[in-house]
From TrEMBL:
Gene Ontology terms for molecular function: acetyl-CoA carboxylase activity; ATP binding; carboxyl- or carbamoyltransferase activity; zinc ion binding
Pathway linked to the protein: Lipid metabolism; malonyl-CoA biosynthesis; malonyl-CoA from acetyl-CoA: step 1/1
Name by which UniProt lists this protein: Acetyl-coenzyme A carboxylase carboxyl transferase subunit beta
Cofactor or coenzyme needed: Zn(2+)
Compartments, as annotated in UniProt: Cytoplasm
Domain CoA carboxyltransferase N-terminal: 25-280
Subunit-level organization: Acetyl-CoA carboxylase is a heterohexamer composed of biotin carboxyl carrier protein (AccB), biotin carboxylase (AccC) and two subunits each of ACCase subunit alpha (AccA) and ACCase subunit beta (AccD).
A GO CC annotation given for this chain: acetyl-CoA carboxylase complex
Originating species: Flexibacter flexilis DSM 6793
GO BP annotation list: fatty acid biosynthetic process; malonyl-CoA biosynthetic process
Catalytic activity, reaction form: N(6)-carboxybiotinyl-L-lysyl-[protein] + acetyl-CoA = N(6)-biotinyl-L-lysyl-[protein] + malonyl-CoA
InterPro entries on file: AcCoA_carboxyl_beta, Acetyl_CoA_COase_Trfase_b_su, ClpP/crotonase-like_dom_sf, COA_CT_N
Zinc finger residue extent: C4-type: 29-51
EC number: 2.1.3.15
């Protein structure tokens, strides 16, 4: 008798002893080191089930959270950056963008789309930190400007999700112009009384904080997000004073009147819906 012949027929494993096949991917919280299934983490809006740490996510995830059934129409999705200054650092700028596009699958540091949130029309522009530190160059400015144009033309509320290291060094002055351009477009939106909600996520800094991110009818943030213009060291050296604890955190900014409220990502969609009902 061969040892590999099955002797017993009908061997079954009771359901409670079956292990669910893992996704092959586990998520380890960088804050409290709790390990969960990636799927459970995703179902929890990418926040830690144990300490509520809000993982940094990109436009794909925010679109999935905000838009009904993850259905939306993306605008200007193929716009990519030119190289107006022939900029070269350790790499030529066009090579850097090309490499980043193939690495991330993104075309630049912002994606814009329109769709529905609990049945209400909304235009969303969401930044991607993965793309050269979420830096604001001409493409970011132009896509946001066009998304605002669409919101204005169709009288649809505009949501901006910011996550940025600031202006894009490789476009220098062209980057800085985007601050004025987006701010001017937002002024038109305000004049037409179309609501604008700005969600600042971790981190929102530099020229983005100094322009569209702080110009919302409502400026809201995720818990513990880092929000600031310059880094703490630069400020400390400029004013010659030590900075208070928690300086540049969302909580500190709310306490000092810079933010209207802080929203847990799990309640983002219902909160936005309530807000839009309130101000429409
Ligand atoms: Zn955690």
């Amino acid at each position: 008798m061969a040892w590999f012949n099955r002797q017993q027929k009908g061997i079954v494993t009771p359901t409670e002893l079956k292990r669910e096949a893992p996704d092959g991917l586990w998520y380890k919280c960088p804050e409290c080191k709790t390990v969960t299934l990636s799927r459970a983490h995703r179902d929890n809006a990418y926040t830690c089930v144990s300490c509520n740490y809000h993982t940094k996510i990109g436009s794909a995830e925010y679109f999935e959270i905000v838009f009904d059934n993850n259905t939306f129409t993306e605008m200007d999705e193929n716009m990519i950056s030119a190289d107006p200054l022939n900029f070269v650092d350790t790499k030529a700028y066009p090579d850097r963008t090309k490499a980043t596009i193939s690495k991330t699958g993104l075309k630049d540091a912002v994606r814009t789309a329109h769709g529905k949130i609990n049945g209400l029309d909304i235009v969303v522009a969401c930044m991607d930190f993965e793309f050269i530190g979420g830096s604001m160059g001409s493409v970011v400015g132009e896509k946001i400007a066009r998304a605002i144009d669409y919101a204005l033309k169709n009288r649809v509320p505009f949501l901006m999700v910011s996550k940025s290291g600031g202006a894009r060094m490789m476009e220098a002055g062209f980057s800085l112009m985007q601050m004025a351009k987006t701010s001017a477009k937002l002024a038109l939106l305000a004049e037409a009384k179309v609501p604008y909600v700005s969600l600042l996520t971790d981190p929102t800094t530099g020229g983005v904080t100094a322009s569209f991110a702080m110009l919302g009818d409502f400026n809201i943030s995720e818990p513990k997000a880092l929000i600031g213009f310059a880094g703490p060291r630069v400020i400390r050296e400029t004013i010659g004073k030590d900075l208070p604890a928690g300086f540049q955190s969302a909580e500190f900014l709310q306490e000092h009147g810079f933010l209207d409220f802080i929203v847990d990502r799990k309640s983002l969609k219902p909160m936005l819906t309530d807000l839009l009902h309130l101000i429409k």
